[in-house]
Write a structure and sequence with these properties.
heterodimer, A: 163 residues, alpha/beta, 25% strand, B: 144 residues, globular
């Protein structure tokens, strides 16, 4: 399987993704699943600017990503699929039933969310969505950078990463 | 009333990058009135953009003065946020991949406006990056 990581990160493409994961995984493509970005040439240009020329970026709506997931998984190059929120990833999982694992990479504070890790804040609804993902057989872990230990969902929800 | 000029540029980046490099500028030049440092640590993309906008507005009470945002990495969330602000403020310069030599050049620039000073700092920053002692660059750089 060529998609090495299925990541939820509210910064979408940024340093941790392009450099932090991009170098060790030798990433050659990113699938960015976001309705707003998929609909805006300007947003796409902004994100493409931050990516080295040898890395492809595919900007896809949820529907397009669901339709093309198998194609991306069959790509022999190393790739990363990225959503900006839990709901989009959960819907993609539901639509495809072909995503084995989900990486929580950065879900930052906003009203209604409670801190679980330094970089993970969750609302009750988001917590429930992650539990449902886990129950459905998807391995859910939090790991911001490759050098960090992947924390299983139970540890994330217990806030054990904060110690 | 102090005659010291207001800060003219923001330096934004990962972790303590901005605070560290601004500290280095102050140590070398004695000027602590040029740069404001911003870290993206623990911030969502929206947080970074909001904070950056607040800083730019605070430094531009007349709505037009600032100026320049220096960032560390083209792919970084600070750069993305700066580009979004640039869309609203076409006069804003965004310089990414900043290094110490570039910031020092900006401090001492005699260019008439911030955009020209930013362009000079980019040129200086590029020249300062070298393999010391020879190699492909033939003799290294004398730097800033």
């Amino acid at each position: 399987m060529a998609l090495e990581l299925y990541r939820i990160d509210d910064r979408l493409i940024h340093g941790q993704v392009v450099v932090g994961w991009g170098q060790p995984l030798d990433l050659r493509f990113i699938v960015l699943v976001d309705e707003e970005v998929a609909a805006s040439d300007w947003e796409q240009e902004l994100y493409r600017m931050g990516v080295p020329p040898e890395m492809d970026v595919y900007f896809e709506s949820l529907a397009d990503a669901a339709a093309r997931l198998a194609e991306h998984q069959a790509d022999p190059r190393a790739g990363l699929l990225l959503t900006g929120d839990i709901e989009t990833m959960a819907r993609l999982v539901e639509a495809t039933r072909a995503i084995p694992s989900v990486n929580l990479g950065g879900i930052h504070h906003k009203t209604g969310r409670v801190q679980r890790l330094r970089y993970v804040f969750l609302s009750p609804a988001e917590e429930a969505a992650l539990r449902e993902l886990s129950r459905s057989g998807v391995e859910v872990t939090a790991q911001d950078v490759p050098a960090a230990r992947p924390l299983p969902l139970d540890e994330v929800l217990a806030g054990e990463g904060n110690r | 009333m102090s005659s010291a000029p207001a800060p003219r540029a923001i330096v934004a980046g990962h972790g303590d990058f901005a605070a560290g490099i601004v500290s280095a500028v102050v140590q070398i030049t004695g000027r602590d009135d040029v740069f404001v440092a911003l870290s993206n640590r623990g911030m969502s993309a929206q947080d970074v953009e909001r904070t950056l906008r607040e800083r730019v507005e605070a430094l531009s009470p007349d709505g037009g003065a600032v100026a320049v945002i220096f960032t560390d990495l083209p792919a970084g969330s600070c750069t993305m946020a700066a580009r979004r602000l640039q869309r609203e403020r076409p006069g804003l310069s965004v310089v990414t991949g900043v290094n110490l030599a570039a910031l020092l050049e900006f401090v001492f620039s005699e260019a008439g406006d911030a955009a020209a000073a930013a362009a000079e700092s980019v040129e200086k920053g590029r020249k300062a990056l070298a393999v010391a002692g020879g190699g492909a660059l033939g003799g290294g750089s004398r730097g800033a």
